[in-house]
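Progress note, sequence design subtask.
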């Protein structure tokens, strides 16, 4: 299936490689136009790869992350666009400190909404993907990303909203990406325990209450196992953010391909008829 357009809306560089990356790589390889929109530059992120936790990288993190994002997009075979907002950082403390005034999550909604509507109307995606109402996890930029993407899905179709942003465009469907459902982690945890006698997911699952599992919300599982190597390579391209010895790489690609060959999504809103469950984000969509 080719000739469709998919827009994946993410908060930071590297999110596109840890959430739905194999799906975007598959659709791009099949001849569809795939655009990743990154809302912030990741300027306030930490350096999470011990090998790169050095002053030169920290001092030039904005430029480093732009280079990493370009390489990840190349690996996935997708186009990329920065929206240009400033990373909010992840506030920690009890109570957490206020967000920086110049940050994406602290900015009024109208500015990023207008900019994303303009991107939607220019690219004219048939389908969008983003995060759920909790941001996938409660980073303020992820939550704001959800708010902006959902608002843009509605506003882009309304010619009375932001007329300066171009002719109205009606996106057919928008999905939430469910990359970290508990059911998947449990399956690989048990496989690793059986194979190795230990699992790096033990602590993660202890802090992941079963009540927060979103497996029941999945409507759409996209077969994309052939693109798992690209997903891994795209993650590794974000060298400042990804520890190559970390839990992302604990399960060999071949084991993932055998035991969980899909990526999971939840159909949030649709303007077209479709039957659930689905195995294709473009199910029911007509090419326009």
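Output:
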């Amino acid at each position: 299936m080719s000739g469709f357009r998919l827009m994946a809306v993410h908060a930071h560089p590297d999110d596109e490689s840890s959430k739905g990356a194999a799906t975007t790589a598959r659709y791009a390889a099949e001849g569809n136009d795939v655009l990743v929109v990154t809302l912030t530059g990741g300027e306030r992120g930490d350096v999470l790869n011990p090998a790169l936790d050095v002053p030169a990288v920290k001092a030039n993190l904005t430029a480093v992350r732009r280079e990493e994002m370009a390489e990840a997009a190349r690996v996935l075979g997708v186009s990329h666009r920065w929206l240009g907002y400033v990373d909010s950082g992840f506030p920690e403390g009890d109570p957490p400190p206020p967000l920086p005034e110049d940050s994406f999550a602290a900015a009024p909604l109208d500015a990023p909404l207008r900019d994303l509507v303009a991107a939607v109307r220019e690219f004219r995606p048939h389908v969008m993907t983003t995060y759920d109402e909790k941001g996938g996890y409660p980073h303020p930029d992820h939550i704001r990303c959800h708010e902006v993407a959902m608002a843009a899905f509605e506003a882009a179709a309304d010619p009375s909203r932001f007329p300066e942003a171009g002719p109205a465009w009606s996106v057919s469907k928008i999905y939430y990406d469910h990359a970290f459902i508990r059911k998947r982690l449990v399956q690989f945890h048990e496989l690793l325990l059986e194979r190795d006698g230990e699992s790096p997911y033990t602590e993660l699952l202890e802090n992941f209450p079963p009540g927060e599992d979103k497996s029941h919300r999945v409507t759409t599982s996209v077969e994309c196992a052939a693109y798992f190597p690209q997903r891994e390579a795209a993650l590794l391209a974000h060298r400042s953010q990804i520890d190559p010895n970390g839990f992302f790489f604990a399960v060999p690609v071949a084991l993932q391909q055998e035991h969980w060959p899909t990526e999971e999504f939840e159909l949030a809103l649709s303007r077209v008829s479709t039957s659930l469950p689905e195995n294709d984000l473009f199910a029911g969509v007509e090419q326009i």
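Residues 155 and 161 are 6 Å apart (CA to CA). Work on this subtask will continue into the next period as scheduled.
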